[in-house]
Amino acid sequence: MVKNMRFDWTPSSISKYNYVVVKIGVSVLIMGIVFHLFFSTSSGVDIIEVEQEEEITPFVEEEARTPSSSSRSQSSASVEVHEFGGQIVEKGKCDIFIGDWVPDHSGPIYTNKSCHILDDNPQNCMTNGRPDTGYLYWRWNPRDCQLPRFDAVRFLDFMKNKSWAFVGDSISRNHVDSLVCILSKVEEAVLVYHDLDYKNRRWRFPTYNFTLSALWSPFLIRSDIFIDPDGDASSEIQVHLDKLDENWKNQYQSFDYMVVNTGKWYFKTAIYYENNTITGCHYCPGKNLTDIGLDLAYRKSLQLVLNYLTSSNHKATILFRTATPDHFENGEWFSGGTCKRTMPFKEGEITFSNMDSMFRNIELEEFQKALKEGLKNEVNIKVLDMSQMTLLRPDGHPGPYTHFQPFAKDKNAKVQNDCLHWCLPGPIDSWNDLIMEMVVNS
């Protein structure tokens, strides 16, 4: 038996019911508004938001050398990198080697006073008397992603019990000095080896059991260089296009990471050998030899080096750095050329010389071949394409201040300029930001 259900619809109960309904309705409306506002501000989760850079005028005062907080957040997400068309690209989108130099008030990580290896260093521009400091207040900014500054603590933690080598010419040595200066802000580097003229050096960071070596090998292949006591060539360089330089080859197995480069030395007068027989030369008038062309010699040497690295059973991480252009104007290093600019170029204001363009094309072509072989043999090889970013920095060279106080006695003195190497600190420090991104953050 089912009882009849009775609904008590008295006026007072209706009033109470309406009151409850109104309260519920208002509550739902408020929740809907909050819900809408929340999701309208959170809907861009797949969009990388780039901070707007405020216009900064580079500081030139002496006090501005002390680094302050970076103008870009250090907690920005790191760029995921992989090889694409010979470049390092973020998911097919961000090439960290394509960008611009933008003002950065934070300045260098170290100074000429905080890094002891800069004592008597020809790239110590401030100590040598360079009067302007604006060149210190720029940073490299990739077009489509954020590039955090080098984190020395994180780098050293990552490299515990590891060994690095920089193999190449004097630009490679310039780069090593930059990295040692940055890392020494965390722990003082201990020089544990050097040869007589300090072209080959090795440092150790004891707390991390990390070693960092600089190996002199300007051609990367065997070369017999004849230099007199004054540093001038006493005879043509003899270059063996079919033999690796034993200086780095014999130590290669001991390195976990290796940065290799060459380039500028191939412009020098040279006699080329294969199978211990002269096969030609570069710029050897009166020798009755065939000039085989710089492009052929350079390509052969890179093929030999990269084939060895990508076919080796030793699985080191290889960073192949492209050659960097110089900025001599109104002459060359031997004919009064200078570099007096104090600001970076913008893209489109300068182009590569024919020679620099030829060398870079050969480098990227041979790297592409090596990359395929490396993938087959599980060798991790990457390209450090520094050419474009350095092309834009004519202001970063020592110029006459490769000499100590060159105008102290005569402000009109004729002084040979260095428009090839880089001031320390200076633009070359940004190279380490890219290495950090490629090796550690990725």
TrEMBL record:
A GO CC annotation given for this chain: membrane
Positions of region (Disordered): 58-78
Domain Trichome birefringence-like C-terminal, first and last residues per copy: 147-438
Biased composition (Low complexity): 68-78
Signal sequence region: none
Name of a matching Pfam family: PMR5N
Cell compartments where the protein resides: Membrane
InterPro entries referenced in this protein's UniProt entry, alphabetically: TBL (IPR029962), TBL_C (IPR026057), TBL_N (IPR025846)
Membrane topology category: Single-pass membrane protein
Bilayer-crossing regions: 20-39
Primary location: membrane
Residue ranges of domain Trichome birefringence-like N-terminal in the record: 93-146
Annotated GO MF terms: O-acetyltransferase activity
Coiled coil, from the record: none
Keywords attached to this entry: Membrane, Signal-anchor, Transmembrane, Transmembrane helix
Family under the similarity heading: Belongs to the PC-esterase family. TBL subfamily.
Stated name of the protein: Trichome birefringence-like N-terminal domain-containing protein
Organism: Kingdonia uniflora
